Amino acid sequence: MSKIKNNLKKIRENNKTSKQFIEAIKDHNLNQIKTIPKGDLHNHALLGMRFSQFNKYFNGQVKPPPAKMNGLKEMANYLDNETIKFINSKNEIEDLLKIAIEEAINDGVILLEASLDASFISFYDNHKEYFSMIQELKESYSQKLYFRPELGAARVLPEDKWNEWVLPSIKSGAFYSIDLYDLESVNNIELYSKYYEIARENGLKIKAHVGEFCNPDQIIETIKILKPDAIQHGIQAIKSQEAIELIKNKNITLNICPTSNIKLGAIEKFEKHPAPKLFEEGINITINTDDLMLFDSSVSEEYLKLYKKDLFTAEELNTIRINSLK
């Protein structure tokens, strides 16, 4: 059993650690910030390392991502053409997972919810082998980090693959949560709802990507149909008081990734990011990496950026840090 998992409450309530974090933020001391326990609850595992690490692993064959991308379609195009094509075996999946977990540990992340795409199961000879690998990975890092594997399912995934890949994974006991991601314009929520109900019955935490680009009506629809515990992004809720109140009333956490939002063009610049207003509204938010390989900003760096841009006080960022460990 993970020592960290058992001591999360003590870690959250450690006043000395909070004081150290606040002082490190105020001093702009990134190295010190990295030593403070924190969570990363919005992390796509195989992209959870710096581009230099990913490229080194594939012998320098990978073209770097654009500094800025015009939305999710351009990001998907880059991933399809410059990263996914290199991942062709279970060994590569496992190696990259380990690199991502170690990257998180080096940043002081002790609670990591990182998504493994549903398709990864297809690289294994049988389901048992895949699920055993995940359990072994959790156990091998359990003294340094509480790894909560997340089942990632793309909106564009055909229904036969939901049955072939997603359902066995939901029922395996290997995953802590389920997340729906990919292009927000693909919005067949009714299709996903039956699988989400099965996930809920199997004790999984319910998540969905929504509200990075789409209008608040889609956030409201997603909440009403999928009943998520957390929303990945959700920043467009700021445009609708109805969405804000629904998120608060349902006690939904928004797992926000500021640099991702900027580099994809969802938000024009840091100074206009809605995270502070969402926080002021009383919504529980966390700050996360999304895809470290694409956006080149760790959780510690995100905290420091938000402070330097005068979007949050150091004390507010500490509250958000503690939220990420709940």
From TrEMBL:
Residues 169-326 form the Adenosine deaminase domain. Coiled coil: none annotated. One of its GO terms (molecular function) is metal ion binding. This is Adenosine deaminase domain-containing protein. It comes from the Bacteria. Belongs to the metallo-dependent hydrolases superfamily. Adenosine and AMP deaminases family. Keywords: Hydrolase, Metal-binding, Zinc. The keyword Zinc applies. Transmembrane segments: none annotated.
